[in-house]
Amino acid sequence: MDKLVIEGGVALKGEVRISGAKNAALPILCASILSDEPLRVSNVPHLRDVTTMLGLLAQMGIAVSVDDRLGVELNAQALDNPEAPYELVKTMRASVLVLGPLLARCGKARVSLPGGCAIGLRPVDQHLKALEAMGATIAIEHGYMQATAPRLKGARIIMDLVTVTGTENIMMAATLADGQTVIENAAREPEVVDLANCLKAMGAKIKGAGGDVIKIVGVPRLHAATYRVMPDRIETGTFLAAAAATGGEVRLRDTRASILDAVLEKLREAGAQIESADDCINLHMPNGLRSVSLRTAPYPAFPTDMQAQFMALNSVATGTALMTETIFENRFMHVQELRRLGARIEVEGNTAVVSGAGHLDGATVMATDLRASASLVIAGLIARGETTIERVYHLDRGYESIEEKLSRLGARISRVR
Ligand code: UD1
Fold it and tell me: Is the pTM of this model over 0.70?
C-alpha cells in the first residue's frame, strides 16, 4: 500500500490548476444511462472514484471511451445489464446514483445496498421513499435493492432531510417520468446545479436547481450532449486551507470563488487575504493564523467535506475553536491521528474543541477516509520534521495528483510505493 512522506515546515507558494469536481462528475457520468445517444463529458478529474464509476457503467453494457484530455464519451445504446454489484458499491457509495437513471431508462434495476461506511451509517431511505412515491416497487433481497417500474410517474416529494445524492437520483429519474415531479427540501449544492445543467443540455426540463424546490417535467427521451464539469470546490478549499495553514501565498486557476463563499469567509476570519477574478482565487497570509469556530451544514453553509482540513489548520492557530459536525455522526476520526502529531483536541458529542498548539511534530499517521486524509496532509505540511501518512488510497479516491500539485507549490512530499 502506498504511503506519503512529508517533510513539513515549508510555506506553500505558487500556482496550481484545480480539477473538475468529483461530486459533479460522478452523477453526470450516471446521467449517460438516461439516453441511447452519446454523452461527451469534459474536465473529468482523473480519480479512483471516477475509474470505479466508469467500470460500473461499462459492465452494464455502456460503451466508454476516455481521451487523453480529461474527456469521456459514454454511449448507453446497448445497456443490457441494469445492475450495480456489491463489489463496486462497497468501495464507492456514490454507485447508488445509478438507481434512479436505471429505473427510468430500463424500468428495472438491481443495486447493492451500500451498507455503513467509516464516517457514519449513511442510509438510502430517502432515495427509496421518493422512487416509491413515483410508482416504483422496491424489495430488498439478499443485500440488493430490486426495483421495478414500467414507467415512473411524476410526484410531489418532500425530502425528510437534505440529501445531495438523494436529490440527484430523483432528479435524474424524474427527467423521463410521466408528468411533473416536484422535489421539496432539495439539496442546493452547486453539484446538483451542475448535474441539472447537464441534464438540460440532454433535453430535460428542469427548473429551480440551486433552490430548495426543484421542478422536473418528464420527457419521452433525452438526446446527445456535450458537457464540461464544474471545478472542484472541495479541492479548491483544501489547497486554500493548506496555503493558509502554512502561511503561504497561492493562486488557484480554473476554479470559482462563488462556489465556496462560506469557506472563503472562514479563511478570511483565520487571517487570510483573498482576492478572486473570473476563474482564479489568490490567497496570502499577511499576519498570523487565528482559530475559527464553525458548524457544518448543507450548502450554502460550511461543508462537512472541509471540516477535517480546518481542524488541521485550527491545531496550530492562535486561540480555541469549536467545531460542530451536523451532517455525519462519525466524522472525527482524524482527531486521534492529529493528536499523534501533538494537536490539542477534545471531543464532546458532535463538537470538537481545538486549542491551538502553536506547532505540530511529525509522526506516522493513518488515513481513515477521504477528507480525513486531506487533513493529515495539511497537518504534515505544517508539522516539524517528517510525517508518514499510511493508507493514502483514500486520498486517491478524491484528489487528482495531490503530491504533484503540492510539490509544484514547494512542498517536500513524496509517495512511497
Ligand atoms: C454527498 C457527497 C459527500 C458529502 C455529502 C454531504 C457525493 C458523491 N458525495 O454525499 O462528499 O460529504 O454529500 O454534503 O456527492 N441520509 C439519510 N437518508 C438518505 C440519504 C441521506 O438519512 O436516504 C443522511 C446521511 O446519513 C447524512 C445526511 O443525510 O447524515 C446527508 O447525506 P447526503 O447528502 O445524502 O450525502 P451523500 O449524498 O451520500
Answer: yes
Report residue 408 as a C-alpha cell: 509544484
pLDDT at residue number 118: 66
Q: Are 91 and 393 in contact (CB under 8 A)?
A: no
Taking alpha carbons only, the member of 23, 24, 98, 22 closest to residue 56 is 98
Cα-based angle 9, 13, 16 (whole degrees, multiple of 5): 125
CB neighbours (10 Å) of residue 193? 20
Does the pLDDT of residue 6 top 60, yes or no?
Answer: yes
Contact 80/74 with Cβ under 8 angstroms? Answer: no
The verdict on whether 117 is a catalytic residue reads yes
Q: Which residues pair with 120 in a beta bridge?
A: 117
Residue with cell 421495478: 148
Cα torsion 11, 14, 15, 16 to 10°: value is -40
Q: What's the gap in Å between 192 CA and the centre of ligand 1?
A: 12
Q: What gap in Å lies between CA 381 and CA 362, rounded to an integer? A: 9
321 has pLDDT over 60:
yes
165 SS3 class: helix
Do β-strands 280-284 and 273-277 pair in parallel, antiparallel, or remain unpaired?
Answer: antiparallel
pLDDT of residue 299: 98
Q: What is the pLDDT of residue 66?
A: 96
Beta bridge partners, 148, equal 108, 137
Question: Quick one: which atom of ligand 1 is closest to the CA of 128?
Answer: 23
What is the reported pLDDT for 119? 64
The whole-chain average pLDDT of the chain stands at: 96
Whats the size of the chain, residue-wise? 417
Per-residue pLDDT tens over the stretch 353-390: 999 988 999 999 998 889 999 999 999 999 999 999 99
pLDDT (average), residues 122-143? 94
For 296-319, b/e burial (b = at least 16 CB within 10 A) is bbbbeebbbbbbbbbbbbbbbbee
Question: Which burial class, exposed, middle or buried, applies to 156 when counting CB atoms under 10 A from its CB (0-12, 13-18, 19+)?
Answer: exposed
Under 8 Å between Cβ of 289 and 360: no
Q: If you measure from the C-alpha of residue 188 to the centroid of ligand 1, how many angstroms do you get, rounded to a whole number?
A: 12
Give, in degrees to the nearest 5, the angle at Cα 308 between 304 and 312: 150
160 lines ligand 1 (CB under 6 A): no
Cβ of 30 less than 6 Å from ligand 1 = no
At residue 116, the pLDDT reads 57
